[in-house]
Structures are given as structure tokens and as C-alpha cells.
Write a structure and sequence with these properties.
With 793 residues, this protein is α+β, with helices and mostly antiparallel strands. 25% of the residues lie in helices and 25% in strands.
Length: 793
Amino acid sequence: MKLKILGLLLACAFVGAQNIQNNPGSNHGNKFEQLGTILPTPNTYRTASGAPGNQYWQQRADYDITAYLNEDKRNLKGSETITYYNNSPDELEYLWLQLDENQQSSVKNADYPSSSTLPKGANIDKLKTSDLPAKDDGYGVNLEKVTDSKGSPIKYVVNKTMMRIDLEKPLKAGEKFTFKVDWNYNIPNRMEKGGRGGYENFPEDGNDLYTMTQWYPRMCVYSDFHGWQNHQFTGRGEFALVFGNFKVSMNVPADHIIGGTGECKNYDQVLTSAQLARYKQAENSNEPIEIVTLDEAKKAEKSKSKERKIWKFEANDVRDFAWGSSRKFVWDGMRVTIPENNNKVMAMSFYGKEAYGLYRKFSTKAVAHTIKTYSEFTIPYPYPVAQSVEASNGMEYPMICFNYGRTEKDGTYSEAIKNGMLGVIIHEVGHNFFPMIINSDERQWSWMDEGLNTFVEYLTEEKWDNKFPSKRGPAWTIVDYMKLPKDELEPIMTNSENIARFGPNAYSKPATGLNILRETIMGRELFDKAFKTYAKRWAFRHPEPADLFRTMEDASGEDLDWFWRGWFYSTDPVDIAIDKVTVATPDFDAIPKEAKETKYKTDAPLLNEFEDISKVRNKEDKNIKFYVDGDKDVQDFYYKYDRGQEKVDTSKEYTLKTEASEKLSTKDKTNGINKNITAYQIDFTNKGGLVMPIILEFTFEDGTKLNDKINVQIWRSNEQKVSKTYYFDKKIKSIQLDPMKETADIDTSNNYWAATASTETPSKFQIFKQAQKETARGGASGRVNPMQAAGKR
């Protein structure tokens, strides 16, 4: 009974704030409305749960390719036989292929010009006359012959980077069509022209390193959600590709070493007996073994054989094929077992002497760590091989990726280069999962492969080293981007070609959003189950954004439409402010005898450098064993500090409690009522527009701390202003909003309040008068739930 009386008395002091929430008026927007028709209508191909429907289908294309690498002319000549399977319910009158190398051509490219201005301070002598029309620079695909399985010519049309095969008769549902394409192209100098494939020349030894990517005419995707995905390739939006089986033969100089998608089927014909023996040793080693040694690579650089060898590779259930070739390659490998499916994978690395000091120590171990960690968070790695090639860039393909990371000439390297190399290797190897297996449409939605992959990259970096300087993933790292003016931002749900700030939009913001979901909104257990469900449902299929959004809700039981709407479809930032704090101490004779109000203070020191919430939780999780802590050799040369001296700061309570702060201690040893209760009404303003949970850290006068997290649903009735009332049996010294910077709040200057001793205490009469005014402002009804006013949920 005394508790109810206390609630009624306190209601008088706080009726105004409660009326704001119960009578939102014009403050209610649509932040909590369902996405509804924004998402495509579910059907028998894609269900409302986010899973593939019972009539889901996708096409398939098998390739049999032969390639001849002419090192002297830097030319690639190829011939491919494609067997295309029409698994759709539709008849197809034509087929579309991608000619990606045409992007390197001055006359065959996609012709997506950019705005240009006069250079400032240009020397007139250095200005050149423009070639109008453009002259052919000799790059791009040269089609030699296109025929059917009987050798008869097939009619085709090339539109920039796309090629249409016109069928003599429609390809019916369930039928397949086999045709052959012969082509060649001049391999561009990747270091000068840019692009994803080409060669790099090393003047000191006169050798080239070839990255053969987007090198063959490739089938476009025909799908239930898009039809033909034949958007032009501009160099940014990457690829939509069809799964299939590959057989590839590469004819290269005899002293070249090749790493490629899939498994080599003739190592016994292309390796020396010593190299073959080392490969077999590496197959059973848990430490990297040099298959081609540094001395052998240096010797090959000088000899430059004029003989030829043919390497034969096979890969099944992949969407693409890439390879690297050079006589400069050192090659090492080791066996790694994926626990979830007992898959024994060959983790391997290829690199020149310029990268030896870094890659020999780290690369293959990073490859192994990546596929094991991604397997924990998504699906078990299904392929037999995972490879990292140092090629002074970063690009991904099935089972192989190209990365950077070279030492100084004396073999030394900086921490920045080392960490950058590790981050790139983890990221590019991680692309085996997104989008090589969970095969999203990169041409349309870059974030579905880059953003999701960057998120799991962050988790993988954390499990490599709890101190890893990740730049994408932690909420606080996206703040500078979110602060930008609205006219410099686009929603994540923007086509790849139209994004002004590609890195933050396609990589950082979606990765950060998923991390906020995992750490702050859903919790790790719910999130991890839902994310794994998405990966399992859409492995070796073609997911769309709606499939991810729906699956995350379906598997977790969380309504996340407010989050997709705010974080993915808008450019609103998070900026929640502590507007004011009202303090009241109840007088049990009649009404509260003490009440005071102070504006938030911003002069208290805020943390600038700290361990974010993921690092804290990972370090406290006894089930997590960091990669570096389990490898003495890596640990010895990876760190310059003694990890054993690190201590967890136990003075802070990082477990977010949602109930403890509202439990009232109502009894004491004298009369059963705690007369030292102090009530605090905290008023919040949503200045940024993006709603988010409210996370508070209370510091009391006795030095103790308490954390509370208020569910985002508190904003559902009023998206601009809300209030929350707390009752404590000890005085608060300060209140910190979002103490671990979990929500990407762009302005932390309004996140702090401190009690002041100089505030005048009003009289009982003043309090009574103020309560009446607040009641009048609350509207005609003035209805207040006493238990709600007392802080009960």
C-alpha cells in the first residue's frame, strides 16, 4: 500500500513527462511502421519468411576452357565450351554474356563518364589535345569465333561490356544449350591502367606477375527477381554470376607457377619431384611448408625458360574461375580441418620475394584462421582449397584471392603494413562466403557482398587478436561518415554505380549496422542463430536484400523493420541527447519535499580511446580463444608488448541490465520504508532522427556504477522526445549516455549529466504549483498510470 501511495505522490511531479509520451500528437512519424510494400511481394520462389520457396530455381553454366598465356606479347588467347542449363520455367530467345575486359578498352567500355573540370595551375605545355572520337587503344576482347556444338556460326551482338547470343530457336524450360567461343585480348598493365586483372612488371628482375581475372566471356544471371542481369560493367559494381563446374587448362612458360580456382589435377606433370614431395608433406602439416622455395623462385627469375607447360584445374559448384601465374612465386601450404564438416582444406599462399618477410610468416595462417572463423559464423567451408596471392591489390574469386603486403627492401615492415596486409587477406579470403557461396547480386547491391563480408571480417579480426585495429565494424568508427551533410550521403540501399562515398556506404555502414544488431539490439545468441540461418538458406543460391531482412526477423522473433528502415533506407544519423534531469526526493508526509532540475553538463571528460563493446565481451568470453594466443611462433613476432600483463578493468560493469535499476528497496530495519529513495526523471531528445536503444551508465556518489539499456520501442509513440524515470536508494553523481559508444551517436557532447550541489531546493508549495502546471499542459485527460509514473513496466 505504501508503494502505491509513493507512486501517486511521485506522479504529481512527473505527470507532464508522462503526458508527452501518452499524447504524441504530431510527433509520431513512420519509423516503427512495417516495410510493407517496400519489400517485394513473397511468392513461390521467395517466401515471406526469407527462405527460398518450394519452386525456387536458378540457372547453371558449365565451362571447359583452354588458355594460352603469351608472355612476350602479353596476350591471352582462349577457347571455351559453355553448356547452359535453363532451369527456369521460361523460354529464352537469347543468352547474355559478360565481356569484362572491354572495360579496359577506349572504345568498347561501358561509357559511364564522370564530370571533369579544368586543372588548377596547369602548365599549358603539358596539356594534350583530346582524341575525338576516341582512338582504339588495343585493349578489350577480340572475338574470333562463336559457334554451336556442331561448329555452325551463331549470330551475336556486342553492346559495350555485354554480349547477346541470339538463339536459332528458343531454349525451353529444362533444356540445355552448348556453344563455343574463341577470343583473345591484350593483357593490360594493371599498375598503370588499374582494373582487377592484368600484369605487374618488376623492372629489377624483368619479370611479370599475372592476375588472370574476368578473363573469359562469362554467363550473366537470369533470375526470378531480375530477369537478365545485364547491367554494364563500369569497374565498380562487380558481378552477378551463375554456378557451375569448370575444367580449365592453362598453357604457360614452363618455369611459371600457377595458383587457381579449384584443384590442380596434374601436379605430377608440372612440378619437380622435390616440389611434389613437399606438396604431399604440406597436405598433412599444420604448419606452412614451402612447396616452391625462395631460392627456387629467385633462380627461376634469372633463367626465364622458353619451354611450355600445361596446368589442369577443376572446380565444381563455383560461380567463377581466376588464376595467377608467375615465375616469381614462392608457394607454401598447410592443411586445415574445418570442424563443422570435417573438411580438410589446403590453405596456400603465393608471393614474390618482395613480400617474403610478411607472407611467409602470416599469409597461410591467416587464410586458415579466416575459413575456420567464417565457418563458425556462417556455413562450413565446402571447398578443397583456399589461397592468397600477393599481387599488390585486393580482389576475390572462388578459392583464390589477390592481396597486398610487401616489405621494405631489407625485409623490414611497419605495423601499419602488417595489419593492413592481415586485414586484406582476411577480407578477401572471407569473400569465399560472401558472395562466392552466398551468391548475392554485386552489380546491384554492393553492400550485400562487401558489407556482410566486412562484418564477418571484423569478427574474424577480433578472434585473431583482441587488439586488432579494425577500422570497420565498431560503431564509433562510422561516426565521421554519419556526420556528413545529407547531400553527401546516400542510403545503403543504393545501386553500386550511384554511390558517391563507396567505401563507407558499401563496406563500413552495413558492417557497423550488423554489429550494432549483434551487440546492442538483438544480442549475440539471437543474432548469430539468425545470421547462420540466412547463410544456410542461401548458400549456393542468389539472395536479395529482402531475403536477408526477412530471415533475420524470422529466425530471431525480433521486429527489425524500424532498423532496416532507418539504417539501410535512410541517411539519418543517431544523435540522442540528455535534455534535462529532474531530481525528486519524496516526503512521506504529503508530497516530495525536494525537487531540482539541472541542464546536462558537458564539461566532464569523455573517453576518446577505449575498448569497444565487442572487444570487452570477447575478452570476457571464456569460450573464445584468440588465434595469436594459441600459436607461440605467431605470438613471438606479432606483438611488441606482453599480452600477459593485460588486465580487464573490473571496476566497470559492462553487462547491460534492463531490470535491476527499477527494483525499489522499500524496507529498512526501522519502519519498513526506505526514506532515502531519490527519483530521477531523464528527458531525452532524438536530434539525429534515427531511433536507437538508450544505454545509460549511472555513477553514484559512493563510486559504484550501474548500467541500463532501454529498448528502442520507447520511441514508438514519440520519435522526438521521451522520458524515463528511475528510483535509487543512493544519490547519482553522473549519468553517461551510450558509455561504450555502441550506437554510432554523432554528438557525445550532449550525452552526459552531472549532479550539482549548488542547485536551489524548491519549497513544497512551488513543487505543488509546478505539478499542477504540468498536468494542465498534458491535455484534457491528464490520465497517468500511478505504477507507470513510479517506473514500473
